[in-house]
Amino acid sequence: MTSYDMLLLRFGEITIKGKNRSRFEKAALAHVKSLLKPYPATKVIREYGRIYVELHGEPAREVSESLKHVFGITSISPVKVSPSRLEDIISAAKEFVGSVPADRHIPFKVNARRVWKEFPYGSQEMNRLVGGPILQAAPGLKVDVHHPELELRVEIREQGTYLYSEVIPAAGGFPLGTNGKAMLLLSGGIDSPVAGWSAMRRGLEIECVHFHSYPFTSKKAEEKVIELAKVLSRYAGQVKLHLVPFTEIQTSLAGTGQDNLIITLMRRSMLRIASLLAEKNGALALVTGDSLGQVASQTLPSMNVIGRATELPLLRPLVMSDKDEIISLAKRIGTFDLSILPYEDCCTLFVPKSPTTNPNLRIIEKIEAGLNGLAEQIETAVRDTETLIIKPHEEVVRSSPDDISSGNMAGAGTIDNNWF
Ligand code: ATP
Ligand code: MG
């Protein structure tokens, strides 16, 4: 086993092009630095299209595991660094490849690149000069330049030669916050946390809003949503969670006796409240976990009538995904086990026997107009919303909404370094 000196982080193709490159790279760099806080010996160097993390004794595996969460980074390679002298490069390469048992036949190739033009041997020449001694030292390897299982990259630079072979896939997408901010409607289900992660992966900063019907829904249900937000905060450094008291509105909607339409009515009120919170907090879109056809409220006619309750763009990252795709993503990002805990959601309390799959907008609007207190109830719910600041490894901070919204009008596309 070789010991690594550095991690090489690569940006995605899209990220490195165009005039936004520098802004993107800065945002990813801020994210990397925030995740490196538990590893104080590390040092970060930014280069065109890449970030290097010098390890100085910090554990390569553990650090790369954590940096895999940085959006905008497509892959990570642990790197061994040697002085840029032929004999040093050869001995570092031998150590890197290690002791491959002689009875193995591992297809292998050296891929050298002379970046430093003063180095006396060219790239092709280096493939041979490094490959020869390695093959002698490790008879279990056989050269296969077309389909190598082990490809040793040797990048010769003035300050040192970088040797690496492993390419670990990372989160990809756009760096956090580089596409503005959106408000995620976070239930306790499987879909909405995945939708939130997908939105973050596209460069959106998210704040979460959750509707609860306490005391009809339990504190356990609230804890579950807090835990889900905590998982999301691992990818963001921090997220805000707005907890909206929804009991009164739900009760008055239920009072209309329109059983089949209740879910449609509830969703519309949720969107109105989320839109007001979005406006207050500088978010320019709403994100939901809707997936076309999954339940009655997610048929096209339902989405149409529900979506008209807001003027903000309604982003549904999972709209065309299958449930199994969503589940496997939920497992990958670490929300699945929490999502399947059984605590009831506010919507399950009032689930009618046959919710409509084809609501009529005019009828819905008429019912809402008949509820003369609805607008006030919505405003009250926004006023009484409690906002929590959620960080991955810290106790939850509870504070009133007014303390928070004033300090958080960072415009779309900005990223606050204190934020991590
Ligand atoms: P999920 O797994 O995200 O709960 P679902 O398939 O169970 O989704 P619904 O319960 O119909 O679907 O909810 C659709 C979307 O509405 C959710 O993905 C979420 O964005 C939003 N939503 C539902 N209930 C709540 C809630 N109590 N608080 C916040 N958002 C909610
Ligand atoms: Mg749900």
TrEMBL record:
Pathway the protein contributes to: Cofactor biosynthesis; thiamine diphosphate biosynthesis
Region (Disordered): 399-420
Location in or out of the cell: Cytoplasm
Catalytic activity: [ThiI sulfur-carrier protein]-S-sulfanyl-L-cysteine + a uridine in tRNA + 2 reduced [2Fe-2S]-[ferredoxin] + ATP + H(+) = [ThiI sulfur-carrier protein]-L-cysteine + a 4-thiouridine in tRNA + 2 oxidized [2Fe-2S]-[ferredoxin] + AMP + diphosphate; [ThiS sulfur-carrier protein]-C-terminal Gly-Gly-AMP + S-sulfanyl-L-cysteinyl-[cysteine desulfurase] + AH2 = [ThiS sulfur-carrier protein]-C-terminal-Gly-aminoethanethioate + L-cysteinyl-[cysteine desulfurase] + A + AMP + 2 H(+)
EC nos: 2.8.1.4
Top-level division of the source organism's lineage: Bacteria
InterPro entries the record matches: Rossmann-like_a/b/a_fold (IPR014729), ThiI_AANH (IPR020536), ThiI_fer (IPR054173), ThiI_N (IPR049961), THUMP_dom (IPR004114), THUMP_ThiI (IPR049962), tRNA_STrfase (IPR003720), tRNA_sulfurtransferase_ThiI (IPR050102)
Main location: cytoplasm
Pfam entry (one): ThiI_fer
Binding of ATP, residues: L185, L186, H210, F211, R267, G289, Q298
Annotated keywords: ATP-binding, Cytoplasm, Nucleotide-binding, RNA-binding, Thiamine biosynthesis, Transferase, tRNA-binding
THUMP domain: residues covered: 61-167
Top-rank EC class of the record's enzyme: transferase
HAMAP family on file: ThiI (MF_00021)
The family this protein is said to belong to: Belongs to the ThiI family.
Role this protein plays: Catalyzes the ATP-dependent transfer of a sulfur to tRNA to produce 4-thiouridine in position 8 of tRNAs, which functions as a near-UV photosensor. Also catalyzes the transfer of sulfur to the sulfur carrier protein ThiS, forming ThiS-thiocarboxylate. This is a step in the synthesis of thiazole, in the thiamine biosynthesis pathway. The sulfur is donated as persulfide by IscS.
Protein's name in the database: Probable tRNA sulfurtransferase
Gene: thiI
